[in-house]
Amino acid sequence: MNQHKNSVALLLSLVCGLIFSSQSSKVFAEDWIYTVRPGDNFWNLTERYLIDISYWQRFRQLNKIADPLHIPPGTKLHAPVSWINKSPIISRVNSVQGQAELVNTESGTTTPLTAGSFVFPGEIVQTKADSTLVLEFVDGSTLLLQPESRLALDSLIIFGKTGMVDTQIHLKEGRIETQVEKKKGPASRFEISTPAGITSVRGTNYRVSAEPASSKSHTEVLEGGVNVNSAGDTKLISKGYGTISSVSEPPSPPIELLEAVDTQLIPEVFDRIPIQFVLPTDPKIKGYRLQIAQHQSFDAVVFDRKYATNQIRGPELPDGDYYSRIRSIDEHGLEGKNAEHFFKINANPEAPFLQEPKPDAGLIEETPIFIWARQNGIQNYHFQLARDNKFTDIVTDLPNLADAHLDNGYQLELKQYFWRVASISAVEGQGPYSDVQTFKRVHPSPQAEEPTINDTSMVLRWPTDLPDVKYHFQMADDESFSEPLIDKQTSVPTLEIDRPDGGEYYIRVSTIYPDGFVGPFGKPQIINVPSSGQYWWLLTLLPLALLAL
User: Fold this and answer.
1) Is the CATH number 3.40.50.150 carried by domain 452-534?
2) I need a labelling partner for 132 at 20 to 30 A (CA). Which of 91, 110, 237, 306 fits?
3) Where do the H-state alpha helices sit in 70-133?
4) Neighbouring C-beta atoms of residue 397, cutoff 10 Å
């Protein structure tokens, strides 16, 4: 009988041992693990990491250590997360571009946020249009809150000195980008919820949007992996993919993100503001997003905007160095991989307005006069004249002109020229050159000879020695030529027209060169056409003169 009882007791002991072993292995899988260092003992470890010093005995017993004062270095000690000392923490505003506010959840009143402001658990932050805010968390993770977004910091907890941090935030509306540090320990978590679902990670770089109007959320993963949960279903979204989730539907199957935009055609230096450029087109691309920061880390975003076309018009920024992130948007509204592009702005002092010669003018003067608008605060001007629009074949380069004109330049040959001017200030130095303007040194405009007039026609001629040119002829009854009576082109230096009524007329001719360049009209000439009655009068005089003989 006793033998039977002993057998039953042994069996129960084995079962309990198996149950405890199973439970212990499950608990250990979720425990915080510490590697012992020289000088560690259960008292100083308990004081440093656990809720209360009274936990040292339980801590020792759980890890089956006989001597609490002498623990071999390298030993792995386990402790349930529930034993770890924990406390709420705050986040810090790294930067604000535009307007960002802290919302009082009880009264609804708002307080402006600035760089250096602290945000506590339970508080709400929001950004206005064309505004961004960067939050930094205690573990080094950062979050960019994009324009017109609203974010609640539900819970921010640190587990003593273990390095474990539990961050739970709720994106009510808008978009955020996160750079989450790799998590340490089982209690570490970075979780973003939206009205349409929940994303959770243990270290990655990803974006989330919340769109109340459509009750959808977009998630785009750039590094690592993200668990996305909606409608009771969870999907792991890996690097380079995105998903769309809603309250009523599981997350969509992973959708591959569009590749980075080709930035080779974007200028590296902008000398005009606002900056403008054109992005490639592709049937898959339905829009773009442009972000600009002053540092490659993007810890302070100065511009963030979405575009529906590939025509990009950016902000007016001060001169300096900038970094841009550009990405395309697909038909699902998912934003693609980042294309980073470094550029400079050198737009100040502004270039002067060029006045003379006029654009595409034809000049007959060997030494033309150059005039540009004078600017306040400008010390000197840098003038350049070249034979090509790239300014590799320079005719003259005058880097320190005090006046806003030049009238003693070189004598110019008959050909096309290009010129530009930059302003120089004592504070900003030399700014960008003006837009290049061109003109052409040409032969003097043709002057017509005395016309040949008969009863029905008038023939006009002008001398020329230029091959393969055409001519533009005009005749008017006023010197302004506002409404020409005749406006014709001809390939020969002569023109026959119907005899006009008697009176005074103005004529002028310009040369059209083989390359299409149109020279200036010459000075207007006056011709007098007798009325037809004068000729009949002259004919009646002739017989009278004969009778007198």
Assistant:
1) no
2) 237
3) none
4) 11
Question: What are the strands, taking DSSP E only, across 2-69?
Answer: 32-35
Asked if residues 245 and 193 have their Cβ atoms less than 8 Å apart, the reply is: no
| CATH node for 269-344 | 2.60.40.10
| Matching CATH number, 28-85, of 3.40.50.2000, 3.40.50.1010, 3.10.350.10, 2.30.42.10 | 3.10.350.10
Closest of 303, 374, 308 to residue 130, by C-alpha: 303
What number of other Cβ atoms are within 10 A of residue 234's Cβ? 13
Q: How far apart are CA 220 and CA 252, in angstroms?
A: 12
Q: What is the model's pLDDT at position 140?
A: 92
Q: What angle do CA 357, 426, 424 make, to 5 degrees?
A: 20
Q: Quick one: pLDDT at residue 153?
A: 96
Domain ranges of the chain: 28-85, 87-256, 269-344, 354-441, 452-534
Asked whether the beta carbons of 165 and 140 are under 8 A apart, the reply is: no
Q: Give tens-digit pLDDT for 22-64.
A: 333 333 448 999 999 999 999 999 999 999 999 999 999 999 9
87-256: which CATH topology? Jelly Rolls (2.60.120)
Q: What is residue 409's predicted lDDT score, i.e. its pLDDT?
A: 66
* 87-256 and 269-344 in the same fold: no
Q: How many helices (H) and strands (E) does the chain have?
A: 4, 43
> Are the CB atoms for 245 and 251 separated by under 8 Å?
yes
- What integer pLDDT is reported at residue 541 of this predicted model? 39
> 3-class SS at 529?
strand
257-313 pLDDT per residue, tens:
999 999 999 999 999 999 999 999 999 999 999 999 999 999 899 999 999 999 999
Per-residue pLDDT tens digits for 332-349: 999 999 999 999 999 999
pLDDT of residue 533: 54
Task: Give the CATH H-level superfamily of domain 354-441.
Answer: Immunoglobulins (2.60.40.10)
pLDDT tier, 106 (very low <50, low <70, confident <90, very high otherwise): confident
